[in-house]
Amino acid sequence: MDNRSNLAEAGLAVGQSGDFARQDEADDSLFYAQERMVSHLDRTALDTVERIIGSLVVEKDPVILDLMASWDSHLPPSLRAGRVVGLGLNQGELAANRALDECVIHDLNQDPSLPFADASFDVVLNTVSVDYLVRPVEVFAEAARVLKPGGLHLVIFSNRWFEPKVTHIWREAGETERPLLVEDWLRAAGGFAEARAFVSKNKPRPQDDKYAHLNIPSDPVYAVFADRLGGDPARPPRPLPGADRARRPKRDLKALAAQVAKDHACPYCGQQLKKWEIPQTPFTEWDIDYMYVCFNDVCPYLVGGWEEMGRQGNLGSSYRLMFNPQSQTLMPMAVPSLSTAKDGIVDE
Ligand SMILES: C[S@@+](CC[C@H](N)C(=O)[O-])C[C@H]1O[C@@H](n2cnc3c(N)ncnc32)[C@H](O)[C@@H]1O
Q1: Containing structural domain, residue 337
Q2: Atom 2 (ligand 1) nearest CA
Q3: Residues 31-53: pLDDT tens digits?
Q4: Which residues of the chain have pLDDT under 50?
Q5: Which long-range contacts (CB under 8 A, 24 or more apart) does 242-251 make?
Q6: In terms of Cα–Cα distance, which of 3, 20, 43, 347 is closest to 184?
Q7: How many angstroms does the Cα of residue 305 sit away from the middle of ligand 1?
Q8: What is the pTM of this model?
Q9: CB within 6 Å of ligand 1 — which residues?
Q10: How many domains does the chain fold into?
Q11: pLDDT value of position 145
Q12: CATH code of the domain covering residue 7
């Protein structure tokens, strides 16, 4: 069964009544009356959000609608917007947002229709807020209506939220299922080309971050996006952040493996590889008992791998560098999480 059928099985697909229930069902304007000039993600994750927007918005002088906006629209300095409209619930937060040319106070949960003309925006953004929408399909359909043909609808999210206001469906979906939910909602809304997704996770948390002492990675950043139908068919697909990595020169793996055979150090981070016992399963193909693996959680090989695997359509996985002492070769070991395979480390 694929993930999508799992969602349907769990009753989490497009939306059944109760899915969008919240702990606090009072008017959203009450909860958001209080100004919150806070950062919702750590600095590294916020840089990633800017990088995603900077990479995907290819329009010249785009007219942008920032939905569920606050004091920061996360537009990178390189992006010269023609005009930016912010729609949210807190006047003070919107007034403090220097990217905005116009602010609109409007409760999307009371009225999902957008107070804008058809085909009036190049880009509709929704950053770290889709988790609060009780009628996401209707809001997405409105996003399609106000977008110009070929325009971008970009939904960015992480794994944190204001507990009283998060919808049941969002909370209960697993982290890997949430991008599929957003894709389902885009499909149900209609008017969009096929959605694509991007993930950045398990980057090192900044040393000066308030949660650095917990030794947890930077907040994950997921982006699901789709173009409004009817755009120029000759325009190339929007470039994902880091897509230019593929054009970087390849490293000489044979020379790296020869070096690793001598010093057992990871050529990407310098840390010593650890002896790792190969689990015996019916699928184990190697006729040796041990490999050597880089288990450094901030090794650039692993850190870059989460995005690289995501770009290849394998959201949520990365790889660690592994050395086979018998064949004296290097290869990637696929890992879905930071803890995967660590129980096989053998103390030497
Ligand atoms: C977690 S904040 C994110 C703010 C901003 N997009 C950002 O990236 O920093 C959630 C925002 O959603 C807005 N919001 C929440 N419920 C809303 C609703 N029903 N209608 C419109 N905006 C809403 C709030 O005003 C709040 O600023």
Answers
A1: 245-344
A2: 129
A3: 999 999 788 899 999 999 999 99
A4: 1-13
A5: 242/55, 242/304, 242/307, 242/308, 242/311, 243/55, 243/311, 245/304, 245/308
A6: 3
A7: 31
A8: 0.87
A9: 28, 32, 40, 68-70, 72, 74, 88-90, 93, 107-109, 127-129, 132
A10: 2
A11: 98
A12: 3.40.50.150
